[in-house]
């Protein structure tokens, strides 16, 4: 395939960025989207031009490091798919593709398509853990917990922290990310001990980091590669309200 790319180029966080046009030929439909960018970078290296920087690691949809806005959608056109899992068969020969970094005040652009996601790390540091010693793996029936509760907690724990929810939200809200982390631990017996403290500190840090408020449009759930439900946001709000009552 021959493709026409319009890619955001920005030298550093303080520099002014712009969309730059590229033409790439010889793209196989079997390539992943990131492999297509690799191919483009190889051609830039041959021309002794600066390569396009972008985030990636495992390239298996697990680590949450990759993520760009493709034709106006976080991670591209497919549902429940990370950028690294997106393949070029989703595009046609001659297509024009717009590629930009995730946009949010709390996710400053470092260079080109690379962003700083450390705001997510600060939220996890604030309360995304439990203080109880879990020791060795317990016997399966030693802690009574229903199948439904375990599955709900597991679904919330599937969040990979890629930031697509923030990038697609018109308010750049991190409510789905924080809601998933809080729901994961709030549903389990080990997490209930510190539940009130956790939700208060994590929500406060979310606000301090510069994320916007949730207006419940549901766009975050649609673009989430793991399909995290916005019910996690409702759970977070319920836990937060309960914590405020007990604090008083």
How does the SSE layout of this entry go?
Layout: E1 3-9, E2 18-24, H1 33-46, E3 68-70, E4 73-74, E5 96-101, E6 109-111, E7 114-115, H2 118-127, H3 147-157, H4 164-168, H5 175-186, H6 189-192, H7 195-208, H8 219-223, H9 231-247
Parallel strand pairs: 1-5
Antiparallel strand pairs: 1-2, 3-4, 3-5, 6-7
Helix pairs in contact: 2-7, 3-5, 5-7, 5-9, 7-9
Q: What descriptive keywords fit this protein?
A:
single chain; 248 residues; alpha+beta; 5-stranded mixed β-sheet; two-stranded antiparallel sheet; 9 helices; 7 strands; elongated
In short:
The chain is of the alpha+beta class. The protein is built from 9 helices and 7 strands. The strands form 2 sheets. A 5-stranded mixed beta sheet has the order 2-1-5-3-4.
Question: Can you describe what's shown?
Answer:
A 5-stranded mixed β-sheet has the order 2-1-5-3-4. A two-stranded antiparallel sheet has the order 6-7. The protein has helices spanning 33-46, 118-127, 147-157, 164-168, 175-186, 189-192, 195-208, 219-223, 231-247; strands at residues 3-9, 18-24, 68-70, 73-74, 96-101, 109-111, 114-115. The termini are far apart. With 248 residues, the protein is of the alpha+beta class. α5 (175-186) runs antiparallel to α7 (195-208) and α7 crosses α9 (231-247). 37% of the residues lie in helices and 12% in strands. β1 (3-9) and β2 form a beta hairpin. The longest helix has 17 residues, at 231-247. The chain is built from 9 helices and 7 strands.
């Amino acid at each position: 395939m021959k493709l026409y790319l319009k890619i955001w180029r920005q030298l550093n966080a303080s520099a002014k960025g712009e969309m730059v046009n590229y033409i790439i030929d010889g793209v196989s439909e079997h390539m992943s989207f990131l492999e297509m960018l690799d191919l483009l970078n190889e051609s830039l290296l041959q021309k002794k031009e600066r390569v396009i920087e972008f985030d990636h690691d495992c390239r298996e949809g697990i680590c949450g490091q990759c993520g760009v806005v493709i034709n106006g959608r976080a991670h591209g056109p497919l549902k429940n798919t990370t950028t690294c899992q997106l393949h070029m068969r989703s595009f046609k020969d001659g297509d024009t593709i717009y590629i930009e970094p995730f946009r949010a005040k709390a996710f400053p652009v470092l260079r080109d398509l690379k962003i700083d996601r450390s705001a997510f790390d600060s939220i996890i540091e604030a309360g995304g853990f439990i203080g109880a010693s879990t020791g060795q793996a317990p016997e399966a029936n030693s802690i009574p917990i229903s199948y439904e509760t375990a599955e709900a907690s597991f679904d919330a724990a599937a969040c990979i922290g890629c930031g697509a929810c923030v990038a697609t939200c018109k308010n750049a809200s991190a409510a789905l990310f924080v809601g998933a982390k809080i729901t994961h631990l709030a549903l389990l017996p080990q997490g209930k001990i510190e539940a009130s403290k956790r939700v208060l500190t994590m929500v406060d840090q979310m606000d301090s980091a510069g994320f916007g408020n949730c207006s419940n449009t549901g766009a975050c759930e649609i673009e989430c590669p793991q399909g995290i439900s916005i019910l996690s946001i409702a759970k977070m709000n319920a836990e937060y309200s309960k914590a405020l009552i007990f604090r008083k």
